[in-house]
Amino acid sequence: MKVLHTVGRNSKRAQALIAELESRRNTVDERAVPVARRILDGVRKGGDTALRSYATRFDRISKQTPLRISEDEIKQAWREASPAFRAAVQTAAKNIRHFAQRQMPKDWSFEPVAGLKIGQQVRPLESVGCYVPSGRYPLPSTMLMTVIPAQVAGVKRIVVVSPRPAPETLAVASFLGIKEFYRIGGTQAVAALAYGTESIARVDKIVGPGNAYVTAAKKLVSFDCAIDMLAGPTEIIVTSETGDPACIASDLVAQAEHDPDAVAIFITTQAALAEKVSAEVKLRVGKNPIAKDAIQQNGVIFVTKTVAEAREITNRLAPEHLTVDVESDLEWVVNAGSVFVGRYSAQPMGDYISGPNHTLPTGGLARVRGGLSVSDFLKIITVQKYQQQGMKKLATSAIVLAKAEGLQGHAEAIRVRGGYA
Question: Would you say the pTM of this structure is higher than 0.85?
Answer without folding.
Answer: yes
